[in-house]
Amino acid sequence: MRFALALSAVFAIGTLSAGGLSYLFLSREMTQRLEADVQSSAESLARIAATGDRTDLREQIIAQVRSSRDGASLFAFVDAPSMQTLGSLQLAAPFEGPRRLLVGQDILESELTGTESAEAYRAFGIRTDIGWIIVARDEAWVAESGEILIQTTAWSLILATLLSIGLALVIARKNERRVDRMDRVLDAVGAGHLDQRIKDDGRDDLAALAARVDQMLNRLEAGVESIRQVSTDVAHDLRAPLARLRMRLEPQALSAEVPMETRHEIGSALMDIDAISGTFDAILRLARLQSGTAERRNDPVDLGGMATTVWEILQAPAEEAGHALDLVIPSTRIQVYGDEDMLSQALTNLVVNAVEHCQPPAVIRITVGMRGDQPFLAVIDNGPGIPEADRARVLERFARLDASRSVPGTGLGLSLVVAIADLHDAKLVLEDNAPGLKASILFAQAKVTPAVLTKA
User: Fold this and answer.
1) What is the Cα–Cα distance from 234 to 230, expressed in whole angstroms?
2) Number of domains forming the structure of the chain
3) How distant, in Å, are the alpha carbons of 39, 76, 374 from that of 124?
């Protein structure tokens, strides 16, 4: 709209400027032409007066007056000896050269009775041997021409304004859609969908900018994909050597011939190897999920039943860590379509993340429900929570906050949850529980039916 108003203002200023200049030039040209016509008429009568024939001059003036009964032209002959005036123009005193006569001031309105008098006249006077010849013509047609020009300019201004507003709105709407497309693509890329492109097929500067952004996104996607591929290849290539190393060390850790202190060190090394192997396994799973190569079923999944199964499996480990793991599910069965194993893994990761990062004793609750028309899985705790400024960063690969550096982990648990949620058209949302954290997986669709059995 700002662009439309600006373009309309430019059109309006241009039209007003053109109309104003045209009015000035046209008025000056018509006035000059009127003065030249008046002077020519006066000179024509002066040539007759130069012959000294008063009778012929009188007849010419009377004929001119009769032919101009509408008052558009006025004629006068002021006799030099008697100073008597003959004609339709009565003046206080004769004059020579050009002059502008005002009705009511230089010319009495009473003398123009019965004529369509104007407000002013252009006159020209010539002194001859027998008297003065004065011819005057009104400026009405100059004013009428100016009014016509003003009306034409006004209509042109209206039409130009409407046209410019319409044209600007069309251009603005088109460009607005193109800019919105850029915003959506950039938002999608910022959310991790690096395959999105603007693909603007225009031929202006905006299209050139979109093309450059697409080229940048191509390089960005290639770079990120290269990094992912390197991490995947490293994880894949190191799994086998680590497995062989573990097989070689495990018998030594169990052998009675090895001193106890040595076996303890070997056991610690085995734990480190298991942690490294777990990290590599998580990298490979995340790479398969993000690349789309992981197979995903699309079966109906009962969120309440799945949450119950995860609760039963993780309740004992949570209690061993000093926490209470609760379950809250609705009295209705909420179903979504997806892969139950993947969703169970995502929920398990959220629970394990809460168990590891909450100081005991903490209360952790698995919740299934509806938020408006969206079903959700949530894990709620009363632990330290995550600062709002860090909630986007903890969803990245290997991201770990300073407060969790002493806690075992790979920094990939929430990244796996995000990847699984994306595959199910869902979204992981981290919210403040005051105190603690509420991690929810929001789904886009659901099927809600009465439940046969409710367990809590």
Assistant:
1) 6
2) 3
3) 6, 11, 93
